Amino acid sequence: MGASGTERIRNVVLVGHGGAGKTSLAEAMLYLSGATKRLGSVDENHSALDYDAEEIKRRFTINLSLAPVMHGDVKVNVIDTPGYADFVGDAIAGMEAAELALFVVDAVSGPQVQTERLWKAAEAMGIARAVFVNRLDKEHADFNSAVSALTSKFGSRIVPIQLPIGAEADFQGIVDVVRMKAYLHDADGERQEDIPSSLLAAAESARELLVDKTAEADDDLMTKYLEGEPLTQDDLERLLKLATAQNLVIPVFAGSATALQGVVSLLDQVITFFPEPMERAPMRTVTGDEVGFSADGDVSVHVFKTMSDPYVGRINCAKVVSGTLTPGSELQNSRTSKKERISHVFKMTGKETENVSAASAGDIAVFTKLGDVLTNDTLSAKGGVEFTPLPLPEPLYPVAIIAKTKADEDKLGSALKNIVDEDASLSLKRDEETRQTILSAMGDTAIDAVLSRLRDRFHVEAETVDLRIPYRETIRKVAQAQGRHKKQTGGSGQFADCWLRLEPNPGGGYEFVDEIVGGRISKPFIVAVDKGIQDTMTQGAIAGYPVQDVRVAVYDGSMHAVDSNEMAFKTAARIGFRAAAEKANPVILEPIATLEIEVPDAYAGAIMGDISSIRGRVLGMDAPSPGFQVIRAQAPYAEVVHYSTHLRALSSGTGTYTFSIDSYEQVPGDIQKKLVETYQKERAEGH
Predict the structure, then answer these.
(1) At 539, is the secondary structure helix, strand, or coil?
(2) DSSP of 607-665, one letter per residue?
(3) What backbone phi and psi angles, to 5 degrees, belong to 198?
(4) How deeply is 239 buried, as exposed, middle or buried, from its count of CB atoms within 10 A (0-12, 13-18, 19+)?
């Protein structure tokens, strides 16, 4: 499969709820086009696309996979994506690389939660949409019910352009209402027949609806239609192609991927009616410029997915935006400003790569063994081009991760970096305050997958531990105490004496005041007192958490001409600060999270009730769109640190939220008591 001109490329991403049959559809396309010799099966563990060890074990898609097929003289880049919420980043990446998102919907269960979430993402990205109603050969499959549910959720643009022939075990094929023909699959392939008389009236009605919905895609043809002049077959096909690209119509197809019914017909429609790369909106750069998909001009590519292979190393999948990419091209990375030489250009089917001579604008190119190229990087011939990054949701499920053994500690950091480089929906940071390595993902299943990759791919055994909440300490009243340090060993000893007064300083942070008069403590030793106090504040007054919002005055003291030094005054300051803090009504503060939670109306009451049960408070509500509520709330961070899985359960997976830590508030007395007791126990155990 060599290079294809931009007009002979179609990029289609398969998206939808987990278990709807996206991978099965891609496998059927590969098999029927001759790209693979046998029909891959997820259930039988011989899928060409779900090849990762974790995917084989779990029997569902975790990673984006490419499945390029030739249909006629058109190259169709099929992109298979995960359907589970924890791996939504790869679905977003796939939509970035495609001109149309084909939503695969189960004919039994209809559109489900992840279908709706990805539909909204596709709308926000401006990508065209279509639907394939799959598994029409299964018990209780109902095409009309699925279409009705789609129309209810997504509006009147939903238009069936295929109808099933038969249902459940009697499903035999499909009726194409555009060409008004029936197509049935058998051992010899797909054969064309006349529409069964029992379906002719339904097909004619569906065709009338299609004409009515597509007419507005072209002003001249709409005028012709409104004036009562019949539209020709060519008119209708042109209208459908325009209406699909403009999102005026969401065409609905029918079939069964595992039974190979309707798949060839679907590919026929893909190359005829699905938008070409140049029909999608131009790519935007971070400076606001636009770059259209054209083979003319300098080469520019956008990396939408990075993978790693134990034998090949790092693999980059990129959409060619402009120019024609050929082996030997030298491109500049906008992020690093470094030149990267593309030694080979590949097409990729599952994990198998094959050299190609070139990749035209609009095509998907794969390259390997580049120095430092990651997801979201832009490579261009002359540099100066940087495309906007993928609109990925923020990973809101953090865990602390540690190596199980000392031997694995040295390998854990680099292994985690490799995994995070591969998956842009993960984030990794070192929290110096809590001294933990924090890995954030979209949910607990994604975390489990990371642990498995660490073990299977990098031979690193790791585990998650409780996340330490970044509590703070402060004081509530004025108190004073003496800090006195005297130590006499042989020779010169150590002596320092200082009196400190602590005052609450709400919102003012730490403030140090020098009230010494008469030179009772010299300036260098006053500086040492300040440093000693700050060192002590990082270790807490009662439970080991950093102290904040305190004004400390040193107002008296004494020193010795020989035995006083900076170290002695630092020690005295620590003693004085702790003594004064104990008398100043010390309290623990907890971080307060501000959440904006968007849920369907039906779940709003349950969400608000739950907020109250976790010591939170509702600040207000808005209705941004019909049927949805946005609830603004605040709650202790400790209660919502893993709110993503909690919200998923409360809202049947329909809720989304944003999150920030904006303030600190005093913890209730019972919680403070437990935190202090835990700290004292750990100190006694030498931790």
Answers:
(1) coil
(2) HHHHHHHTT-EEEEEE-SSTTEEEEEEEEEHHHHTTHHHHHHHHTTT--EEEEEEEEEE
(3) -70, -20
(4) buried
DSSP state of 285: B
Residue type, 532: G
Where do we find the tokens 């403030």?
511
Instruction: Return the DSSP state at 6.
Output: G
Can you spell out the DSSP letters for 82-128? --SGGGHHHHHHHHHH-SEEEEEEETTTBS-HHHHHHHHHHHHHT-E
| Dihedral pair phi/psi, residue 681, rounded to 5° | -65, -45
- Report how far residue 430's alpha carbon sits from residue 56's, in angstroms, rounded to the nearest whole number: 32
Question: Which DSSP symbol is given to 396?
Answer: -
> Does the pLDDT at position 89 exceed 80?
yes
- Residue for token digits 């832009």? 378
Contacts of 96 (CB under 8 A, 6+ apart): 125, 302, 304, 319, 390
Instruction: Read off the tokens for 80.
Output: 């298979």
Question: Would you state the structure tokens that stand for residue 155, as one six-digit string?
Answer: 């509006």
Secondary structure (DSSP) of 130-183: EEEEE-TTSTT--HHHHHHHHHHHH-TTEEESEEEES-GGG--EEEETTTTEEE
Q: Which residues pair with 473 in a beta bridge?
A: 547, 588
CA distance 550 to 472: 12
Strand-pairing partners, residue 294, are 322
- Helix (H) or strand (E) run with residue 428 in it: strand 427-431
**Residue 2's pLDDT is what?**
42
pLDDT tens column, 638-665: 999 999 988 999 998 889 899 899 899 9
Angle at 362 between CA 358 and CA 368, to 5 degrees: 50
Distance CA 303, CA 289 (A): 18
Query: At 665, which amino acid appears?
Result: E
Q: What ranges make up the beta strands (E) of 242-312?
A: 250-254, 283-284, 290-291, 300-309
Residue 264: phi and psi, rounded to 5, are: -65, -40
Beta-carbon count within 10 A of 238 CB: 17
d(CA 138, CA 620): 46
The secondary element (H helix, E strand) that includes residue 669 is: helix 669-684
Q: CA-CA distances (angstroms) from residue 147 to 117, 132, 139, 150, 158? A: 18, 10, 17, 5, 8
- Give just the sign of the alpha carbon dihedral 388, 392, 396, 402: negative
First-residue to last-residue Cα distance in the chain: 62
Distance (Å, whole) CA 47 – CA 55: 10
Bigger pLDDT: 2 or 525?
525
Nearest to 171 by CA among 184, 161, 158: 184
| pLDDT classification of 687: cutoffs 50, 70, 90 | low
Instruction: Provide the CA 12 distance to its chain's centre, in angstroms.
Output: 20
pLDDT > 70: what percent of the chain? Answer: 99
pTM of the model: 0.88
CB neighbour burial string for 293-327, b if at least 16 within 10 angstroms, e if fewer: bbbeeebbbbbbbbbbeeeeebbbbbbbbbbbbeb
Number of helices (H), then strands (E), belonging to the chain: the values are: 17, 36
Q: Which tokens sit at 489?
A: 């060993």
Beta carbons of 307 and 367 less than 8 angstroms apart: no
Q: How many CB atoms lie within 10 A of CB 454?
A: 23
Q: Could you tell me if 161 and 427 are in contact, meaning their C-beta atoms sit under 8 angstroms apart?
A: no
Q: How far apart are alpha carbons 98 and 653 in whole angstroms?
A: 26
- Alpha carbon distance 426, 617 (integer Å): 30
